[in-house]
Automatic annotation (TrEMBL):
Record-linked PANTHER family: INOSITOL MONOPHOSPHATASE, INOSITOL-1-MONOPHOSPHATASE-RELATED
Name listed for the protein in its UniProt record: inositol-phosphate phosphatase
Cofactor: Mg(2+)
Stretches assigned to coiled coil: none
Reaction(s) the record says it catalyses: a myo-inositol phosphate + H2O = myo-inositol + phosphate
EC number of the protein: 3.1.3.25
This protein's pathway: Polyol metabolism; myo-inositol biosynthesis; myo-inositol from D-glucose 6-phosphate: step 2/2
Organism of derivation: Pseudalkalibacillus berkeleyi
Enzyme class: hydrolase
């Protein structure tokens, strides 16, 4: 958390300077010099203190991780780069630490709001100094669900017809543009569920630990466990709501 606070002040300082913005897989997939600098900052610190740990980072300065043996740090230096570039808010640093494939420490630091969501597996989850409660049961009609509007329009990854009844049935939808913040909000009870079609391990590694620590459930949209070494669809939420939506809305009606 000290490193995340330190990286947070480096990012805030950068608002005064000119950013270098490049694109990656497509014109909407952005990366800046700060994404790379912050990743390197964490990697340098981790290597110094834990030379035997593996590091999986979005911007590629970490290791070529292809197994979860030993201790693995999964890092997204800036989650919500588009928000960072366009809004200078609503982005987060996300760090998940796994040991032999089991989540141990999850940190999501929403930099501009100065909100530190953190959990040590088995010892509780916190927002700054405040303990987060176990997630309570909620019915779909009373739920607030995070989903990006693009998934409700025609898209390459999923037929939206399965999602429309969920959007119709819930109390309201939200979209924050940072998967880590959306997962942290589910853990904090600010959202009841989060649905998205494709995330990488660094987008959800910390959020998974936080959500499971407060008794929530996170899986793919098919209900299968997440693969921490590849891309996944993501469905996170309060456990009873997750089960209800999976059973009545997402599962193939024939099965
Ligand atoms: P990023 O900002 O770290 O890239 C935006 O809706 C959310 O989806 C962000 O959390 C963003 O993470 C993530 N995301 C995952 N893959 C992406 C991609 N190819 N392009 C843009 N955002 C992506
Ligand atoms: Ca990115
Ligand atoms: Ca991300
Ligand atoms: Ca990122």
């Amino acid at each position: 958390m000290d490193w995340a606070y330190q990286a947070g002040s480096i990012i805030r300082e950068s608002f005064k300077k000119q950013l270098t913005i490049e694109t990656k897989s497509n014109a909407d997939d952005l990366v800046t010099n700060m994404d790379k600098d912050v990743e390197r900052y964490f990697i340098d610190n981790i290597r110094k203190h834990h030379p035997d740990h593996q590091i999986l980072g979005e911007e590629g300065s970490g290791d070529d991780v292809n197994s979860l043996e030993g201790t693995v740090w999964i890092i997204d230096p800036i989650d919500g780069t588009m928000n960072f570039v366009h809004q200078q808010t609503n982005f987060a640093i996300s760090i998940g630490v796994y040991h032999e494939g089991v989540g141990k420490v999850g940190i999501i630091y929403s930099v501009v709001n100065d909100e530190m969501f953190h959990a040590i597996a088995g010892s509780g989850a916190f927002l700054n100094d405040y303990p987060l409660s176990k997630l309570s049961e909620v019915e779909l009609e009373k739920s607030l669900i995070a989903i990006n509007a693009t998934w409700i329009t025609k898209n390459k990854l999923m037929n939206p017809s399965k999602l429309i009844p969920i959007v119709d049935g819930c109390r309201g939808t939200r979209s924050y543009g940072s998967a880590a913040i959306e997962l942290a909000f589910v853990a904090a009870g600010r959202l009841d569920a989060y649905i998205t079609m494709r995330l990488s391990p660094w987008d959800f590694a910390a959020g998974k630990i936080l959500i499971e620590e407060v008794g929530g459930t996170i899986s793919t949209l098919d209900g299968t466990p997440l693969n921490l070494l590849g891309q996944n669809s993501i469905f996170a939420g309060s456990t009873s709501l997750h089960h209800h939506i999976l059973k009545d809305y997402l599962h193939d009606s024939k099965s």
